[in-house]
Amino acid sequence: MLFTISGKHIDITEAIKSYAQEKTSRLPRYYNSVNQIEVVVDGSKGGKTSVEIIARGEHSVVFVGTESGEDAYRCIDVAVHKLEKQLRRKKTKERNNKHTAGADKTKAGRDGGDRRSK
User: Fold this and answer.
1) What is the per-residue pLDDT across 31-88, written as a single tens digit (0 to 9) for each?
2) How many angstroms separate the CA atoms of 15 and 71, rounded?
3) Which DSSP letter does residue 43 get?
4) How far is CA 52 from each of CA 16, 21, 80, 83, 90, rounded to the nearest angstrom?
């Protein structure tokens, strides 16, 4: 998995880099095809920090989680939580659509099959 972190108007410390990498390393657990994660930390003049996490998967699937606030660590946590929610939803949709044809066959087999009138 490819991990990149960049900062706009802010210096990225080794602590922030390792924290972001640790938190985002769990994302492929929720959706297997995630192969690239990019973290962008943006600091403004007012002391407000904005974090954007972009997770790219196979077949050009892109997930984005953004958060802004005073603390960069908290912003990373909230953005990762938003991404986890998106990834879980995507995986659930794929799983539900995967086996729809098989469910119809078993339902029809149980309901009515061979009924004889008396």
Assistant:
1) 888 999 999 999 987 889 999 999 999 888 999 999 999 999 999 999 999 999 999 9
2) 13
3) E
4) 14, 13, 9, 10, 19
> String of b and e for 4-29 (b: at least 16 CB within 10 Å)?
ebebeeeeeeeebeeebeebbeebbe
* 33 touches 59 (CB < 8 A): yes
Which has the closest alpha carbon to 83: 44, 39, 50? 39
Torsion angle (degrees, nearest 10) of CA 68, 52, 84, 92 = 120
Q: Position 63: which residue type? A: F
The reported pTM is 0.77
Domains and CATH numbers, the chain: 2-98 (3.30.160.100)
